[in-house]
Fold:
Amino acid sequence: MIPLSWYLLLSAALFALGIVGFLIRRNLITIFMSIELMLNGVNLSFVTFAHQWHLVKGQIFVFFVMVVAAAEAAVGLAIIISIFRARATLAVDRIDLMKL
Amino acid sequence: MHLILFIMFAGLCLAGALNLLLQKHPINSALSLVVVMTSLAVLYLLLGAEFLAAAQIIVYAGAIMVLFTFVIMLLNAGREERTRGSVSAVALGFPAVAAILAVIATVILKAQDLGSASLSDGITSTEELSRVLFHELLLPFEVTSVLILIAILGAVALARRGNGEEAGK
Structure:
């Protein structure tokens, strides 16, 4: 018997760790994995609120997030392969053509 | 029992997420992300979402992470170089993250009407889930299949060695 706020705090912590990873990591693939971590943090809070109000729709939302995340991973990794082919590097400091 | 399982897998989850940030090699980060996703599947099960727990393991820890490790090994990604990084990202980003986390934590801890979870709560059956998914939300479900199709075509078009990419070298 534990309060649901613990689950929500865990979800917030995962989301924050995802943002920190997005900011401090310099590898394109690791940055992409940090985004997946943030998505997982949000999914946990969806499931928690679905449990809180006994609604199935919260879980279906997570299902759709998973589908979109799978599509996003496929397209994102294809873009990463394409970038690697053109620049031969994965370090974001060297892929800064559009940076001011 | 619920408390023990929660503490065990929430700790595993946070440890995996921290390890993802601290490891220098992308393959180690990918494997710790698998740990995070698998322990999240157990947490979903504790909250009574059995279908999502299975889908989390199959789709996330299975399909998506295999794709990640495949790309890491295909591109032979080495250790990350240590660089200073963006100063503005550190100067503005970390206070912003701390502020967001503080606000969310305050709101959650002040909320009075949040319930609690225990092992005897009963689980949402897959039948119940699919009844809503295939009756009320049939159109969004079909739209996601179109989305997946577009994603497949986009991934193939992007990753294929085309003529246009030779000019970019």
